UniProtKB/TrEMBL annotation:
Protein encoded by which gene: xseA
Domain called OB-fold nucleic acid binding: residue spans: 8-115
Protein name: Exodeoxyribonuclease 7 large subunit
Keyword Cytoplasm: yes
Residues forming coiled coils: none
GO BP term (any one): DNA catabolic process
PANTHER family in the cross-refs: EXODEOXYRIBONUCLEASE 7 LARGE SUBUNIT (PTHR30008:SF0)
GO cellular component, one term: cytoplasm
Family membership: Belongs to the XseA family.
GO MF, one annotated term: nucleic acid binding
Keywords, in A-Z order: Cytoplasm, Exonuclease, Hydrolase, Nuclease
EC number of this enzyme: 3.1.11.6
Domain of life: Bacteria
C-alpha cells in the first residue's frame, strides 16, 4: 500500500458528511419511536436521548439512533408536556419530526424539530377506549353505559348518612395523602374520622394488581368502612396509566363499598374515575367531599330541628287559641248546666220532701200494727217451747235408763271373758309357760339340746334341761 492510497480521518468524515448532506440535505422526517436514555440539561435547555424501534412480538430493539433537541425542538417538547400532561422521558411512544445530521466529531445524529401531541394523546385515548369496550363486554352484570355515563355497581351505592370510617389506598410517601389527612384533621367543623391506610405502589401500569390486592385486603378486613379513598398525587399522563387498566377498572366497578378517587389529575378522567362512586380531581378535593357530605347531614339535622321548632310554635299557637276558645265554651256551658241542675235539684227537693212525709206516715202505721203483733206473739211462742222442753226431759230420762242397762250387760260379759282368758285359769286347764332364761318362748327355734329351760305350771315351776328337740306340726294339740 502506497502513501497515495491513504487519507486522513477528517477527509473521510468530511466525505461522509458531504454524502449524507447530499442525500438528506434539508429534508425532514416524521418518525414513530420510543424514547430511551433521556437526559435533560435545564441550564441550557438541551435534551439528549436515543430513539429506538422495538419488535412488536419480542420487544427486541431493531433500530437505535442518538437524538438531541435544543432551541425550537426544546420549546416544542415543553409545549408537548404542557398540552398532554406527559413528561418527556424514557419509555414513552412518540411521533417526532427530525432531521438527519452528521458531525465530524460527534458522528451521526438525529435532531428533534417537532413532536406531535395528538399522536401521544390519541394513542393513550385509543387504549383507554378499547379497555372501556372490554369492560362493557366482559362485565355487563355490573357495568353498563347510559348516554355518556358509565353506570356501575359501585357508583349506584349510597353513602351512609355520616362518613367516619375510611380505608385509604395510597403510597407511603404520597404528598397527596398528607394533604388529604391534613384537610380531614383540620376541618373547621370539628368532625372526627377513623382513617386506616393500605399502602401500595400507585404508579406504573404493571402495578394495577397491587392496588387490586389492597382493595381485596380492605374487603377481607371485615371493618364496616363507610368509604374507600384511592389517592395519588399529581404527575404526568402516563403516570396515571395504572388507573386506566382493565384489572383495576373491573375491581372498582364491582366493589361493595363506595369508592372516592382523588388521583390528582387535572385534565383527563381515568377509567377508575368512571367506575368509582365519587371521582374528584385531587386528594384535597376528596377530603372536602367527605367533609361536605357530613356537613350536609348536619345541616339537614339543623334544618329539621329548625322546622320542628317553627312547627311546634305554630302548633302551640294554634292550639293555644283553640284551648282558649274551648275554655270559654266550657265555662259558659258549665254555668248553663249548673243552673239547669240547680233547678232540677230544687224540684227533686220538693218531690223528696212530700214523698218522705207520705212514706213516714205509712211506715208509722205499719210499725204500730207490727208492734201489737209482736207484743202478743212471745207468750204463744214461750208456751210452745215449754211443752217441748218437758217432752225432751221425759225422753232423756227414759233413754238414760235403757242406755245404762245395756252398758252394765256389756261390762258383765267382758268381765267373764277376762276371767276365762286369765293366765292362772289357762294354767289350771293343763297349759304351761316355758321360759328360756327370763324370756317366755313360743317356739323351739331359739332352744337347742342341752339348754336349760323353766316350765311354769299353775302350782309350781320346774327347772329342766333339753335333751332332744323333735319338730312336729300342731295336730297333736287339737281339742
Amino acid at each position: 500500500m502506497t502513501a497515495s492510497e491513504t487519507i486522513k480521518l477528517s477527509a473521510l468524515t468530511g466525505r461522509i458528511q458531504q454524502a449524507l448532506s447530499n442525500v438528506f440535505g434539508e429534508e425532514t422526517f416524521w418518525v414513530v419511536a420510543d424514547v430511551t436514555n433521556h437526559a435533560f440539561y435545564a441550564q441550557k435547555g438541551y435534551h439528549y436521548f436515543d430513539l429506538v424501534e422495538k419488535d412488536t412480538n419480542s420487544s427486541a430493539i431493531v433500530a437505535k439512533v442518538a437524538a438531541v433537541a435544543w432551541g425550537n425542538g426544546s420549546i416544542r417538547i415543553r409545549e408537548f408536556e404542557y398540552v398532554t400532561g406527559q413528561q418527556f422521558k424514557n419509555d414513552i411512544h412518540v411521533l417526532v419530526k427530525v432531521s438527519v445530521n452528521y458531525h465530524q466529531v460527534h458522528g451521526l445524529q438525529i435532531t428533534l424539530l417537532d413532536i406531535d401531541t395528538n399522536f401521544t394523546i390519541g394513542m393513550l385515548e385509543q387504549q383507554k377506549q378499547q379497555t372501556l369496550l372490554r369492560l362493557l363486554a366482559e362485565c355487563s352484570d355490573y357495568i353498563r353505559k347510559v348516554g355518556d355515563r358509565y353506570v356501575t355497581r359501585n357508583n349506584q351505592l349510597s353513602f351512609r348518612a355520616v362518613i367516619q370510617k375510611l380505608a385509604v389506598i395510597t403510597s407511603g410517601n404520597s404528598a397527596g395523602f398528607q394533604d388529604f389527612r391534613h384537610t380531614l384533621e383540620h376541618n373547621r367543623f370539628g368532625y372526627a374520622f377513623q382513617v386506616d391506610t393500605y399502602f401500595t405502589v400507585v404508579q406504573g401500569e404493571s402495578k394495577a394488581e397491587l392496588v387490586q390486592q389492597r382493595l381485596i385486603d380492605v374487603y377481607n378486613s371485615g371493618v364496616p368502612y363507610d368509604a374507600v379513598v384511592i389517592i395519588r398525587g399529581g404527575g404526568a399522563q402516563t403516570d396515571f396509566l395504572l388507573f386506566d387498566t382493565f384489572l383495576l377498572g373491573r375491581a372498582v366497578a364491582k366493589f361493595p363499598i363506595p369508592i372516592i378517587t382523588g388521583i390528582g389529575h387535572q385534565k383527563n378522567e381515568t377509567i377508575t374515575d368512571m367506575m368509582a362512586h365519587s371521582p374528584v380531581k385531587t386528594p384535597t378535593k376528596a377530603a372536602e367531599l367527605i367533609i361536605a357530605h357530613n356537613k350536609a347531614f348536619e345541616d339537614g339535622i339543623s334544618d329539621l330541628q329548625h322546622t320542628i321548632l317553627i312547627r311546634a310554635q305554630q302548633l302551640f299557637s294554634s292550639h293555644y287559641q283553640a284551648l282558649s276558645q274551648l275554655n270559654a265554651t266550657v265555662i259558659n256551658q258549665t254555668r248553663t248546666i249548673l243552673q239547669g241542675q240547680r233547678e232540677m235539684l230544687h224540684d227533686y227537693h220538693n218531690v223528696v220532701s212530700h214523698g218522705s212525709r207520705s212514706m213516714l206516715q205509712h211506715h208509722q202505721r205499719e210499725l204500730l200494727t207490727l208492734s201489737g203483733a209482736i207484743l202478743a206473739r212471745p207468750r204463744v211462742v214461750i208456751a210452745g217451747k215449754q211443752n217441748d222442753l218437758q217432752n225432751i226431759t221425759a225422753n232423756i230420762r227414759s233413754f238414760n235408763r235403757l242406755y245404762m242397762q245395756n252398758r252394765r250387760g256389756q261390762l258383765a260379759h267382758y268381765d267373764t271373758l277376762f276371767k276365762l282368758m286369765s293366765p292362772v285359769n289357762i294354767l289350771k286347764r293343763g297349759f304351761a309357760i316355758v321360759y328360756a332364761g327370763d324370756k317366755i318362748i313360743n317356739s323351739a327355734l331359739p332352744v337347742e339340746p342341752g339348754s336349760p329351760i323353766t316350765v311354769r305350771l299353775h302350782d309350781a315351776s320346774l327347772e329342766a334341761t333339753v335333751t332332744a328337740k323333735t319338730p312336729h306340726d300342731e295336730s297333736g294339740t287339737d281339742i
